[in-house]
Amino acid sequence: MNPKPSKLVMTLDTLADLPPLALPEGYSLKSFESMDVTAWESIIRISFAREIAFGDKIGFEAPFHPDKILFIRHQGLAVATAVAWEKEGCGDDCGYLHMVGALPGHSGKRIGYMITLAALHRMREEGKKKAMLETDDFRLAAIRIYTKLGFRPTLLEPEHERRWNAVLARINDR
């Protein structure tokens, strides 16, 4: 049995020059409230094509910060989410972009880009200077957004260069 491949890592060297956040008409940004657990799990299930429990990835244990869990809403429904988290070992000046997902019915509106950008803005508001994230090889649409926002692959393991070359080639072919 092959072990599960490690996560790919991307870094953004500065949050200083982020583009402005301009949501499309009819869309709004909000932070997490306890009633949002089901919406979060639904968006993540569709985005990651598997069940992920809120309690397993975010939880309500310290350091739980509901203001770091963001949603874009449309007509009262959550359609995208991202978390402006912190990760041990990342550094005090580094934010951790976590669990980004958007519903496919809103493609063409740049909702995935906007929720990612909103999380980066939140990190900057909190005094973070840079950001990092972990992703999977198959999340091509997300990786395309991350590269547009200035994230660059970080090679942490020997096989990462080969995997990144394959991912970037697939993105460039589209």
From TrEMBL:
| Pfam families, alphabetized | Acetyltransf_1 (PF00583)
* All residue ranges annotated as the N-acetyltransferase domain in the record: 27-174
- Report the InterPro entries cross-referenced here: Acyl_CoA_acyltransferase (IPR016181), GNAT_dom (IPR000182)
Native source organism of the sequence? Cohnella rhizosphaerae
Which chain regions cross the lipid bilayer? none
Q: What is this protein called in UniProt?
A: GNAT family N-acetyltransferase
One GO MF term on file is: acyltransferase activity, transferring groups other than amino-acyl groups
